[in-house]
Amino acid sequence: MNAVPPNSASLIAALAGVLSDGGLLTEAEDLIRYSRDWSGDHFGRPLAVARPSSVEEMSALMRHCHAERIPVVPQGGLTGLVGAAVAADGNEVVVSLERMNRIRSISPIDFAMVVEAGCILEDAKRAAEESDCILPITFGAQGSCRIGGNVATNAGGFNVLRYGMTRDLVLGLEVVLADGRIWNGLKVLRKDNRGYDLKQVFIGSEGTLGIVTAAALKLFPRPTQIETALVGLRSVEDAMALYARARRGCSDLLTAFELILRGGIEITMREGKDFHEPLGKPYPAYVLIEVSSGGLIDLKDMLLSFLAGVEDLVEDGIVASTRAQGERLWLYREIMVERQGRGGRYLRTDVSVPISKLADFVTDALFELGRARPDALPVTYGHVGDGNIHLNVVPPEGMAAEAIEHLFEEAEAEIFAVVDRYGGSISAEHGIGRVKQRAFLDRIDPVALDLAAGIKDAIDPRHILSNGRILASASALDYR
Ligand SMILES: Cc1cc2nc3c(=O)[nH]c(=O)nc-3n(C[C@H](O)[C@H](O)[C@H](O)COP(=O)(O)OP(=O)(O)OC[C@H]3O[C@@H](n4cnc5c(N)ncnc54)[C@H](O)[C@@H]3O)c2cc1C
């Protein structure tokens, strides 16, 4: 059932035939932009880049690819971090959603919007705000990632603890299947119990089951007040104790609770222009707290009262007095994320454990990592309100490429072993793609693998869609 690499001249002529003007790119210089992802770690030349401009064109394209067994990979903004959207070198057609980027509708009464998959997340958020609503998916890559990519990766971000993951925000989907059929599941109903909830199969499927062409998404009332604080603490344990109190003490208005260990703040101070010691002196752990609400309460007063009641945990802190100051506090986190690798490669992990175990997990994982690889520099931060932590590893400066590879393998194995001990997940956000595939398949329950392989076989029987991501290449049957 493996997809067969096609003859490229006839392939290109046939694909051009089903796409409108400018829909097919084949020149080497045009393909570069679609060959490398944000991390720079993954590179693969596409056979060609198809850019359908409507669901009908997408359907015709996939009908042809299915008939001819042409392997394809859907691509959004290329900010995914597990190497899934980049083509297998010279062997796959990239299907870019970039020309399907319209906002089809917004209804502030339904609190819903219907957006095409190629719409950049930030553009969709802006459109929601113009209707006095918010689309709450929020994270550093929002200026580049696209809605289809968010759906396909079940993206999380800063606001998950209040609004949920993308999965919780999708009301309906339009999907073009591997054989070109269009599944129109685009509805804005809040309650609908008619049979299987098919959209859930596609959410988080990383392009392996269908091409999302549009999504109906939940919106929320736009907060009129947002307050941000940065606090310094003695330990991760204190940060988690603070979280438990904040969940109750902030009247359920908590929208973000982001942990950064001292090393992360130092990265921003070293690299970020004009970023000084944020709290006057250093602390082992920091938390960015954000609360938001409508107009009927005094939100700043609530946050200040809450902070006044947790002085046993909080060593020091600042509450932003303006939105601009609040945004500047967030930059301590964003700059750290961008600069942590000093422009070179670093190991990314995005693990999760039960919230109640997160502090112990961090202590144990850092201990095991330090014992196994004292030369590795850990950078630790995360959405700890969701039990999700990024425990990344930066190699020592000047280390040879092969030694870096070995360091990453060893470090990841140490961290994942501790995740297993805590009953956690090796991927809380980024997905499996190709990068985490081995670790995923080593751990998956055999019944779950059987079900996953059955779903793949049923929906994409020729395995032309994102072959070799999540499940093994060609047929998942090989792994059973
Ligand atoms: C600085 C930075 C911060 C980040 N922070 C977070 C974070 O906080 N939380 C989080 O969850 N992620 C985060 N990410 C990861 C990434 O941004 C998300 O995974 C995002 O949802 C990917 O969207 P994209 O459009 O870039 O998808 P791409 O990278 O283009 O693709 C990702 C996957 O989705 C598939 N895909 C894309 N479009 C479609 C479609 N229309 N139909 C079917 N499959 C499709 C691809 O084949 C691939 O498997 C971050 C990334 C960066 C660079």
Automatic annotation (TrEMBL):
A UniProt-annotated Pfam family: FAD-oxidase_C
User: Does Flavoprotein show up as a keyword for this record?
Assistant: yes
* Highest taxon of source: Bacteria
Is Zinc set as a keyword in this record? no
Please provide the record's keywords in A-Z order: FAD, Flavoprotein
**FAD-binding PCMH-type domain boundaries:** 42-222
List the transmembrane segments.
none
Identify the InterPro entries for this entry. FAD-bd_oxidored_4_C (IPR004113), FAD-bd_PCMH (IPR016166), FAD-bd_PCMH-like_sf (IPR036318), FAD-bd_PCMH_sub1 (IPR016167), FAD-bd_PCMH_sub2 (IPR016169), FAD-linked_Oxase-like_C (IPR016164), FAD-oxidored/transferase_4 (IPR051264), Oxid_FAD_bind_N (IPR006094)
Q: What is this protein called?
A: FAD-binding oxidoreductase
Q: Which organism is it from?
A: Mesorhizobium argentiipisi
